[in-house]
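Kindly go through the entry underneath: sequence plus fold tokens. Please state briefly how this chain folds according to its tokens.
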Amino acid sequence: MAKRRTGRSSPREVGPPPATGDQLHTWIRAHLQLNVPRGPLDDSHQAPFDYLLHSFFEPPLTTGDAHACAFPRDLVLWANRGGGKTFLGAVATLLDLVFKPGIEIQILGGSADQSRRMFQHLRRLFDSHERPHLAALIQGAITADGLRLTSGSEARILAQSHTSVRGTRVQVLRCDEVDNFKRDIWEAAQFVTRSKQCGPFFVRGRVECLSTMHRPFGVMHDLVEQCKQGSRRLFKWNVLEVLERCGAERRCTTADPGALVSLPQFPDAQRPGPREGDCVLLPECRCRAKERDGGHYFIADAIAAKRRTGASHWESEMLCVRPRRDGVVFPEFDPRAHVGRWELQGDHLVAQPPRSALVRVDAFAGESQRRVIGHYVGMDFGYRNPTVILWAALDESGTIFVLDEVHATGVTIQDHTRTILAGHAGAGRGPWPAPGHVACDPSGENHDAHGRSCVTTLRESGLRTVHHRMTILEGVDLVRARLRPADGSPPRLFVDERCTHMIESLLRYHFREGDPSSLVPVKDGFDHAADALRYLVRSLDKSSRTASGSYS
């Protein structure tokens, strides 16, 4: 910490804008007394300084002006609890205010408290006792919801309401804990930014999102998926990237740290535990915290947090591996155990190496292929809502393999019927063999305005339809029993990795949040593929019981 000074000094002490990453890091150390980690421990992550570098030099230093428009302007910061997201958002705001005259920044949090927390960090960074040369830049007094510099730059807290969001036009919108946003507010916030020349910087209007990701059906999950598609830039780190440097007084292990494997790569049943005398962080850290400049998170606090929480919460909140499974309809589903890749060769399914590194399947328990005894289709009807068609194979052990899917809106039942009869040949897959039956929604028997029904159209084409009256939870229980049989036997339901909508639905289909007594899943788009699957599973399981209650 720099020696405290008293009195105000000239704004010229701030100096010219940093022109390189090294200059930016040096400025932050000299003026804010912060040492922000620059190198990640994990090659798949970014260091906290990478976020500041991107946010300040937009477009990045490595990108020429000719390519600036093609580079994603919006960014998403996914980091652990206590990982410094809110504080670094305040640092990024200070840098923008000081060096980009006339810039307008709004801070929007998942709650009023969250918005104020980032602003409180910002106020402390402009503290007149610790940093009088920065405080001298303030015009007037800092209010409860904003501040303004003599250069015309300003930052304000934005209330999470339609009135506030829709009346805003700023260069940068920083959204903190976006996973707690209401979706309608989030959608309205996408229109608030505009570009502007701010001194030597042309600031492209952008939205920055900073959050943990603890809900598979939340806004943050959608944003991370958009990053994978290239529309936003993702910055990600976990607790390891912000750990303090580990001293010689802490013992890791006598084992070779290079032989250790990080916990998230193991399915739940195969996770290695620390040996007696080992540090509990060893499976994640692998002694790397001894080899780098440290961050702000105390190792003792990380150890205490891991000891007092469950594995799913630790992986979600601190390792940023995936969202928690609380409140989802199919917590048993795990892509590492239930997703793979198969090819149909004659009457056999032959396992193929998965293309995705996120799945790890041993579906055949040592066998490279399974003999198929039947092909079937599961179908959920829709028009404005999507119609979902699932192609599945049943092997001789009774295991179901969902091999392909159609997920389409605005398509008639006549066209879907032709797709099924063609075996999905037009999509570059198949053609799949003719199905033994089409398992569908019982509501498909209802007649439309022309006196016909979806079921009638399917049957008149020569397809056999099967539909059973069942409650939603009855069908859910049948799917759950196949995903994780109670007797400990291997799963009896697998999904091919090409069925992306099916996989997303199994991961994100959820009950009503905040209402633990509700047993009715939310119909917010993830239900359609899940419905087609439970119709399919119900048709292949041999129970003849019919239930009454809520049907879908």
